[in-house]
Amino acid sequence: MALVIACWFAASGLRLVNPAFLPSPGDVWDAFTELVREGYKGETLMTHILVSLRRLFLALGASLAVAVPLGLAAGTSRFVRAAIDPVIEFYRPLPPLAYYTLLILFMGIGDESKVTLLFLSAFAPLLIGVTFAVRKIPEDRLRAARSLGAGGPRLLWSVVLPSCLPDILTGFRTSTGLAYATLVAAEMVAAVSGLGWLVLDASKFLRNDIVFTGVIILGAIALAMDMILRAATRRISPWLDRQEG
């Protein structure tokens, strides 16, 4: 990262690239302070950030609420797995924007279509991760738990879910990254607010200083979310650090 910043300072300072295409760090900082002070197109910068995060968190919450129990069911029942696998494998390879047009057709250009698109982006990898985690639990562990009287919901909560937790957290990190990338693309297609829209709209007016500012903010938010998820993973399943060490 330091090398990239150093190259940026050097390229802009030596005028190796046209400033219209590569604004200097000083210009980007000025654009950031302008956004903080005046906002963009009638909305504050914080409003654009919160709009994007609201869409993302709604979709991630829904994906967790649906994918985890469904993945547990699919991992323990081949009938459930046979029922949902064709659907998941049909839409999972598709680029999200390929079916976004259909979502807009049925739901409009409001937040409903965007949240649904993000949900679908996050749902498939999380579901597959949970299903795989359940199926790889050693059978001896399950037999031992049953021999001690665990069964039904108690077996699920005491053995299956704790065994799957590291893979669930890893899958959720992956899903968060995919949904976040899809969020930016969705806001660039049909939106009037959010960071993705801000970047696209600024590019139409050749405000590359604002474009760079938006991209940096998007990257900083992504980095912060990943750090939070990493910290949560270490706190919830500290044995993973001991295994990696």
Overall description:
By secondary structure, the chain is mainly α. The protein is 82% helix and 0% strand. The protein is elongated. It starts with a helix and ends with a helix. The mean pLDDT is 82.
How many beta strands in the DSSP annotation?
0
Oligomeric state of the chains in view: single chain
| Spans of at least 5 consecutive residues with low confidence | none
Overall radius of gyration: 22 Å
Q: What number is the mean pLDDT?
A: 82
**Helix run count:** 11
**Category from helices, strands and their pairing:** mainly alpha
State the separation between the terminal residues, measured CA to CA: 26 Å
Write down the domain tally: 1
Report the sheet with the most strands, covering strand number, pairing sense and barrel closure: none
Named CATH topology: MetI-like fold
Order of helices and strands: HHHHHHHHHHH
> At CATH's second level, what is the architecture?
Orthogonal Bundle
CATH class: Mainly Alpha
Can you identify the CATH superfamily? MetI-like
Q: What is the 3D form?
A: elongated
